[in-house]
Amino acid sequence: SIGRKRKMKARKWLLSLFVVCALVMAASGVMAHDLWLVPQSYNPKVGDTLKVLVGFGHKYPASRIDEKMRPGMLQAVKAVAPDGKMIKLVKKSEDEYALQVKAKGSYLICAQINPVFFSVVEGKRKRGNKKNLTGVKECTLYHLIANAPVFAGDASKKAAPAPAGQKLQVQPLADIAKLKKGDPLPVKVTLMGAPAAGVMVRATYAGYEPSPEALAKAKKVAPGLSPKEAARKRMMQKMALHNPVRVKTDAQGKANIKLSSPGWWLVSVSGDAPHPDAATCDKNMYKTTYTFEVR
Q1: What predicted TM-score, i.e. pTM, was given to this entire model?
Q2: Which of 69, 256, 264, 290 has a CA between 20 and 30 Å from the CA of residue 54?
Q3: Does residue 72 come out as left (phi exceeding 0), alpha (psi in the -120 to 50 range) or beta?
Q4: Can you list the alpha helix ranges (DSSP code H) found in the chain?
C-alpha cells in the first residue's frame, strides 16, 4: 500500500541519517579529542613523587578528567629535566604516571598517543593508509601531543622548552608563576621548527561551561546543508563553545591569551605538514595541548 511504502521510505531515510551522523562522528575521530596532562601539583618539592594523570576527551571538566585512556593508546610519558635530559615517568596505570622529582628547577612533562592513520575511501573514513587500503582519496596520520610544566624548589618559573623532536609546540613567553586573573599570556607556536602564522590558539580552564543560550544557538545551522554537513557543523559549533579564548597567531607565530579566571588552564593548537612518505600517506596532522595553573 501507499502508506506502507511511505513508512518504509521514512525508515530508510532515518537509517541513512543515522549512518551519516555516525560517519561524521568517526571522521572527527582522534582530532575531535584532546590529550592533556594533569599534574597533582605544579610546584612539587625536591624529593617528591609527583602523581601525573592523563586526560583525554572532548571536555575539560573541573576534575580535569573526561574519558578513560584505552590500553595501547599512549606512548611512554616523559619529562624534560632541569638539566635538559629526558627522563621516563613510572607507569602506574593507563591513566596514571609518577615523576621522581630529584632536583630543583623546571620540568616539562610530555605525552603523546601512538599516531593513527585515517583515510578517505569512497567518501567514508577508514582506519588505515595507502599501503593497506585501496581507493584512498586522502590519508592523514594523526598525532595528539600534551605538555605540562612543573617547577620544583625555588628555581626560576621559566618553563622548560619542549623536546626538539616535537613537531608542534606551544611555548609561553612569560613567567607562568606570576600570572593572575585578567593577565595576558603571550605564547609562541612553532610547527616543524618554524613560527606558525595564522594558527588558531584555543584556551579554556577546568570547569568552564558555556551558557545554555550559547549551546542552544550552536544547534542552529544554515538551511540547505546536507544531513552530513549539518551534523558536522553542529558538532564543531558545540566544541568551539568550550574554548572561551580563540585567537590567531601573528606572522611570528605569537598570540596573547587573556586569562579570565584563576584555575587550571588548557591551551590547544593544531597544524599539519606533508607526510614524508607520500606513497604511504599524504599528511601529518598534529594537535598539541599545554596545561598550567593560574592563581
Answers
A1: 0.83
A2: 256
A3: left
A4: 2-28, 212-218, 227-241
